[in-house]
Amino acid sequence: MTNIGREYAIALFETAYDEGSLDAVREELTEIRKLLKKESDYIGFLMNPAISKEERLDSLSEAFEGNVEDTLYSFLAVMAINNHMGEFFVAAKEFEKMYEDYKKISFAVITSAVKLTDEEKRKIVTRLRKVTGKAISPIYKVDESIIGGVTVTCDGMFFDGSVARNLKNIKEVIS
Q1: Mean pLDDT, residues 34-40 taken together
Q2: CA-closest candidate to residue 131, choices 148, 108, 111, 114
Q3: What is the C-alpha separation between 160 and 162, in angstroms, rounded?
Q4: pTM given for the model
Protein backbone atom coordinates (compact mmCIF):
# COMPACT_ATOMS: atom_id res chain seq x y z
CA MET A 1 0.00 0.00 0.00
CA THR A 2 1.25 3.46 -0.79
CA ASN A 3 0.67 6.56 1.24
CA ILE A 4 -0.65 8.40 -1.83
CA GLY A 5 -3.56 5.97 -2.29
CA ARG A 6 -4.35 6.10 1.42
CA GLU A 7 -4.29 9.91 1.43
CA TYR A 8 -6.77 10.00 -1.44
CA ALA A 9 -8.98 7.50 0.39
CA ILE A 10 -8.93 9.60 3.55
CA ALA A 11 -9.80 12.76 1.61
CA LEU A 12 -12.68 11.01 -0.17
CA PHE A 13 -14.00 9.44 3.01
CA GLU A 14 -13.89 12.70 5.00
CA THR A 15 -15.52 14.70 2.22
CA ALA A 16 -18.26 12.12 1.62
CA TYR A 17 -18.87 11.92 5.38
CA ASP A 18 -19.12 15.71 5.71
CA GLU A 19 -21.54 15.89 2.78
CA GLY A 20 -23.67 13.00 4.01
CA SER A 21 -23.03 10.99 0.86
CA LEU A 22 -20.92 8.19 2.31
CA ASP A 23 -23.26 5.33 1.34
CA ALA A 24 -23.81 6.65 -2.20
CA VAL A 25 -20.09 7.26 -2.74
CA ARG A 26 -19.25 3.76 -1.52
CA GLU A 27 -21.81 2.17 -3.82
CA GLU A 28 -20.66 4.17 -6.84
CA LEU A 29 -16.97 3.66 -6.05
CA THR A 30 -17.59 -0.09 -5.94
CA GLU A 31 -19.20 0.05 -9.38
CA ILE A 32 -16.37 2.18 -10.79
CA ARG A 33 -13.81 -0.25 -9.36
CA LYS A 34 -15.57 -3.14 -11.13
CA LEU A 35 -15.73 -1.15 -14.35
CA LEU A 36 -12.06 -0.17 -14.25
CA LYS A 37 -11.01 -3.76 -13.56
CA LYS A 38 -12.78 -4.76 -16.77
CA GLU A 39 -11.52 -1.72 -18.68
CA SER A 40 -7.97 -1.58 -17.32
CA ASP A 41 -6.72 0.33 -20.38
CA TYR A 42 -8.77 3.33 -19.26
CA ILE A 43 -6.52 3.95 -16.25
CA GLY A 44 -3.53 3.76 -18.59
CA PHE A 45 -5.21 6.33 -20.82
CA LEU A 46 -5.82 8.64 -17.83
CA MET A 47 -2.15 8.35 -16.86
CA ASN A 48 -0.67 8.69 -20.34
CA PRO A 49 1.59 11.78 -20.42
CA ALA A 50 1.34 11.84 -24.23
CA ILE A 51 -2.35 12.72 -23.89
CA SER A 52 -3.04 16.23 -22.66
CA LYS A 53 -4.57 16.68 -19.20
CA GLU A 54 -7.42 18.52 -20.86
CA GLU A 55 -8.23 15.55 -23.10
CA ARG A 56 -7.99 13.13 -20.16
CA LEU A 57 -10.30 15.31 -18.07
CA ASP A 58 -12.75 15.62 -20.95
CA SER A 59 -12.89 11.84 -21.17
CA LEU A 60 -13.35 11.52 -17.41
CA SER A 61 -16.07 14.18 -17.49
CA GLU A 62 -17.88 12.44 -20.32
CA ALA A 63 -17.78 9.12 -18.47
CA PHE A 64 -18.59 10.20 -14.93
CA GLU A 65 -19.62 13.83 -14.44
CA GLY A 66 -23.32 13.97 -13.63
CA ASN A 67 -23.42 10.16 -13.42
CA VAL A 68 -21.83 9.86 -9.98
CA GLU A 69 -21.76 11.94 -6.81
CA ASP A 70 -19.91 15.23 -7.35
CA THR A 71 -17.51 14.27 -4.55
CA LEU A 72 -16.58 11.07 -6.34
CA TYR A 73 -16.18 12.77 -9.69
CA SER A 74 -13.92 15.41 -8.09
CA PHE A 75 -11.87 12.64 -6.46
CA LEU A 76 -11.34 10.98 -9.85
CA ALA A 77 -10.53 14.29 -11.54
CA VAL A 78 -7.92 15.25 -8.93
CA MET A 79 -6.31 11.80 -9.22
CA ALA A 80 -6.20 12.17 -13.01
CA ILE A 81 -4.84 15.75 -12.92
CA ASN A 82 -2.07 14.71 -10.53
CA ASN A 83 -1.23 11.56 -12.53
CA HIS A 84 -2.17 9.35 -9.60
CA MET A 85 -4.76 7.10 -11.27
CA GLY A 86 -2.30 4.26 -10.76
CA GLU A 87 -3.25 4.52 -7.09
CA PHE A 88 -6.99 4.22 -7.76
CA PHE A 89 -7.37 0.60 -6.63
CA VAL A 90 -5.32 1.22 -3.48
CA ALA A 91 -7.46 4.26 -2.67
CA ALA A 92 -10.69 2.35 -3.36
CA LYS A 93 -9.61 -0.54 -1.13
CA GLU A 94 -8.59 1.82 1.68
CA PHE A 95 -11.89 3.70 1.37
CA GLU A 96 -13.74 0.39 1.68
CA LYS A 97 -11.79 -0.48 4.84
CA MET A 98 -12.60 2.91 6.37
CA TYR A 99 -16.26 2.50 5.45
CA GLU A 100 -16.42 -0.97 6.99
CA ASP A 101 -14.74 0.26 10.18
CA TYR A 102 -17.10 3.22 10.37
CA LYS A 103 -20.19 1.10 9.75
CA LYS A 104 -18.85 -1.68 11.96
CA ILE A 105 -19.18 -4.29 9.24
CA SER A 106 -17.27 -7.56 9.35
CA PHE A 107 -17.02 -10.04 6.53
CA ALA A 108 -17.28 -13.68 7.53
CA VAL A 109 -16.43 -16.67 5.37
CA ILE A 110 -18.69 -19.47 6.57
CA THR A 111 -17.78 -22.90 5.23
CA SER A 112 -19.95 -25.97 5.65
CA ALA A 113 -19.91 -29.51 4.29
CA VAL A 114 -23.37 -29.05 2.77
CA LYS A 115 -25.42 -26.05 1.76
CA LEU A 116 -26.86 -24.36 4.84
CA THR A 117 -30.56 -23.66 5.24
CA ASP A 118 -31.73 -20.08 5.66
CA GLU A 119 -32.44 -20.78 9.34
CA GLU A 120 -28.91 -22.17 9.90
CA LYS A 121 -27.43 -19.14 8.15
CA ARG A 122 -29.50 -16.79 10.31
CA LYS A 123 -28.40 -18.52 13.54
CA ILE A 124 -24.70 -18.41 12.59
CA VAL A 125 -24.84 -14.74 11.56
CA THR A 126 -26.75 -13.84 14.75
CA ARG A 127 -24.09 -15.58 16.87
CA LEU A 128 -21.26 -13.87 14.98
CA ARG A 129 -22.95 -10.50 15.45
CA LYS A 130 -23.03 -11.12 19.21
CA VAL A 131 -19.37 -12.24 19.29
CA THR A 132 -18.00 -9.38 17.19
CA GLY A 133 -20.42 -6.59 18.07
CA LYS A 134 -20.54 -5.76 14.36
CA ALA A 135 -22.90 -6.24 11.46
CA ILE A 136 -21.92 -9.35 9.52
CA SER A 137 -21.67 -9.61 5.76
CA PRO A 138 -21.50 -13.39 5.20
CA ILE A 139 -19.87 -15.27 2.35
CA TYR A 140 -21.00 -18.89 2.24
CA LYS A 141 -18.90 -21.74 0.87
CA VAL A 142 -19.38 -25.49 0.68
CA ASP A 143 -16.39 -27.78 1.28
CA GLU A 144 -17.23 -31.48 1.65
CA SER A 145 -13.77 -32.20 3.10
CA ILE A 146 -14.81 -30.79 6.49
CA ILE A 147 -17.29 -33.74 6.67
CA GLY A 148 -19.81 -31.84 8.82
CA GLY A 149 -20.17 -28.76 11.02
CA VAL A 150 -18.85 -25.36 9.99
CA THR A 151 -15.72 -23.24 9.95
CA VAL A 152 -15.82 -19.47 10.16
CA THR A 153 -13.16 -16.89 9.37
CA CYS A 154 -14.03 -13.41 10.62
CA ASP A 155 -11.92 -10.40 11.66
CA GLY A 156 -8.72 -12.42 11.55
CA MET A 157 -10.17 -15.14 13.78
CA PHE A 158 -10.77 -18.74 12.75
CA PHE A 159 -13.44 -20.84 14.40
CA ASP A 160 -13.32 -24.54 13.55
CA GLY A 161 -16.44 -26.50 14.43
CA SER A 162 -15.89 -29.08 11.72
CA VAL A 163 -16.23 -32.82 12.14
CA ALA A 164 -12.86 -33.22 10.38
CA ARG A 165 -11.16 -31.13 13.09
CA ASN A 166 -12.91 -33.06 15.88
CA LEU A 167 -11.80 -36.38 14.34
CA LYS A 168 -8.24 -35.06 14.12
CA ASN A 169 -8.37 -34.04 17.81
CA ILE A 170 -9.64 -37.51 18.80
CA LYS A 171 -6.88 -39.14 16.75
CA GLU A 172 -4.25 -36.98 18.50
CA VAL A 173 -5.62 -37.94 21.93
CA ILE A 174 -5.65 -41.64 21.06
CA SER A 175 -2.15 -41.63 19.56
Answers
A1: 93
A2: 108
A3: 6
A4: 0.70
